[in-house]
Amino acid sequence: MATSKGPVIVVTGTPGTGKSTLAQMLASESPIVLRHINVGELVKEKKLYEEYDDDWQSYTVDEDKLLDELELIVADGGVILDWHTCDIFPERWPDLVVVLRCDHTIVWERLEKRGYPLKKIQENNEAEIMQVVLEDARSSYPAEIVVELQSQTTEDLESNVTRIIGWIEAWKNDHPA
Ligand SMILES: Nc1ncnc2c1ncn2[C@@H]1O[C@H](COP(=O)(O)OP(=O)(O)O)[C@@H](O)[C@H]1O
């Protein structure tokens, strides 16, 4: 749901695949102002959850509240939504959906460093192997806006930034202010 201010880009993928790293770089290098929304942080900050699950060390998100909050942000355009799931976002929202992929052993190491409990690491590791986020993205949005990108190395990161910045440039040319 782009506005004259800019497109709506979803950056999604299993936790640890590199969404926030990529989204921050995109926000700082984009030729148009893009607001980076780390949805997990927003949920905590605005208390858009039902409860905190101690076992899983994660929040049970109140999806209605979250969607109401995001609707206002998305309506403004020029936003990067960074979250480990994407299928709750309405189909009309994104102009581009980037799904980051990573070797599951690397995801495991990254989540271990983050101090996640073992069962949470195992669950995410399995989700990456089963490409759950990619399948969800493909079943929720038109094929032509869903892009799968590898995010294992610094070279991957640089080439992903270059590629998406190229897409933003093209979007800008197609939507003169
Ligand atoms: N393409 C990459 N190559 C190497 N390390 C990366 C890459 N992307 C992310 N990382 C590292 O992996 C860790 C997790 O990245 P982060 O962006 O927090 O993932 P996410 O937001 O998907 O949970 C961080 O330590 C980050 O520096």
TrEMBL record:
<feature type="binding site">
    <location>
        <position position="19"/>
    </location>
    <ligand>
        <name>ATP</name>
    </ligand>
</feature>
<comment type="similarity">
    <text>Belongs to the adenylate kinase family. AK6 subfamily.</text>
</comment>
<feature type="binding site">
    <location>
        <position position="114"/>
    </location>
    <ligand>
        <name>ATP</name>
    </ligand>
</feature>
<keyword id="KW-0547">Nucleotide-binding</keyword>
<dbReference type="GO" id="GO:0006364">
    <property type="term" value="P:rRNA processing"/>
</dbReference>
<comment type="subunit">
    <text>Interacts with small ribosomal subunit protein uS11. Not a structural component of 43S pre-ribosomes, but transiently interacts with them by binding to uS11.</text>
</comment>
<feature type="region of interest" description="NMPbind">
    <location>
        <begin position="38"/>
        <end position="61"/>
    </location>
</feature>
<feature type="binding site">
    <location>
        <position position="16"/>
    </location>
    <ligand>
        <name>ATP</name>
    </ligand>
</feature>
<keyword id="KW-0067">ATP-binding</keyword>
<keyword id="KW-0418">Kinase</keyword>
<dbReference type="Pfam" id="PF13238">
    <property type="entry name" value="AAA_18"/>
</dbReference>
<dbReference type="GO" id="GO:0042274">
    <property type="term" value="P:ribosomal small subunit biogenesis"/>
</dbReference>
<dbReference type="InterPro" id="IPR027417">
    <property type="entry name" value="P-loop_NTPase"/>
</dbReference>
<dbReference type="GO" id="GO:0005737">
    <property type="term" value="C:cytoplasm"/>
</dbReference>
<dbReference type="GO" id="GO:0016887">
    <property type="term" value="F:ATP hydrolysis activity"/>
</dbReference>
<dbReference type="GO" id="GO:0005634">
    <property type="term" value="C:nucleus"/>
</dbReference>
<keyword id="KW-0963">Cytoplasm</keyword>
<dbReference type="GO" id="GO:0004017">
    <property type="term" value="F:AMP kinase activity"/>
</dbReference>
<feature type="binding site">
    <location>
        <position position="18"/>
    </location>
    <ligand>
        <name>ATP</name>
    </ligand>
</feature>
<dbReference type="GO" id="GO:0005524">
    <property type="term" value="F:ATP binding"/>
</dbReference>
<keyword id="KW-0690">Ribosome biogenesis</keyword>
<protein>
    <recommendedName>
        <fullName>Adenylate kinase isoenzyme 6 homolog</fullName>
        <ecNumber>2.7.4.3</ecNumber>
    </recommendedName>
</protein>
<comment type="function">
    <text>Broad-specificity nucleoside monophosphate (NMP) kinase that catalyzes the reversible transfer of the terminal phosphate group between nucleoside triphosphates and monophosphates. Has also ATPase activity. Involved in the late cytoplasmic maturation steps of the 40S ribosomal particles, specifically 18S rRNA maturation. While NMP activity is not required for ribosome maturation, ATPase activity is. Associates transiently with small ribosomal subunit protein uS11. ATP hydrolysis breaks the interaction with uS11.</text>
</comment>
<dbReference type="InterPro" id="IPR020618">
    <property type="entry name" value="Adenyl_kinase_AK6"/>
</dbReference>
<keyword id="KW-0539">Nucleus</keyword>
<keyword id="KW-0808">Transferase</keyword>
<keyword id="KW-0698">rRNA processing</keyword>
<feature type="binding site">
    <location>
        <position position="21"/>
    </location>
    <ligand>
        <name>ATP</name>
    </ligand>
</feature>
<feature type="binding site">
    <location>
        <position position="20"/>
    </location>
    <ligand>
        <name>ATP</name>
    </ligand>
</feature>
<feature type="region of interest" description="LID">
    <location>
        <begin position="113"/>
        <end position="123"/>
    </location>
</feature>
